[in-house]
Amino acid sequence: MKSNCRLLYKSNNTHLQTSLPVYFYGLPDGNIYLIYARFYEINFNKSGLEFVFAVLENYYYDFETEKVVALKSMDKNLSSFRKEVESKEPQLRIVKSYRNIKSFVEAQRFLGKKADEMVNILL
């Protein structure tokens, strides 16, 4: 079965407030989703890890042609997209953060299920 969630890029060097990797995924709805983890404080000297799902505001993803498109300019190739998201803080909209997800693999599976649901709604 073909995946409806395409990994575009994994970065260890973004301007987001996390030292952990950031994953960029293209979905059939045209949005580019980010998944990243960040620490939060539970109480004094105790922290937890939450996974944040966000949508990149400046770009969209053409799922059919597999191209990243900047909203203010021409088509971008993936290498120039990578340089741009690492060189400045990306404009994004946080969709939701989850504290019950335990790993990036689990977060990717969750996003994959959401992508499958989107495709089923569109059909």
TrEMBL record:
The protein depicted here goes by the name Uncharacterized protein
Q: Where does this protein come from, organism-wise?
A: Maribellus comscasis
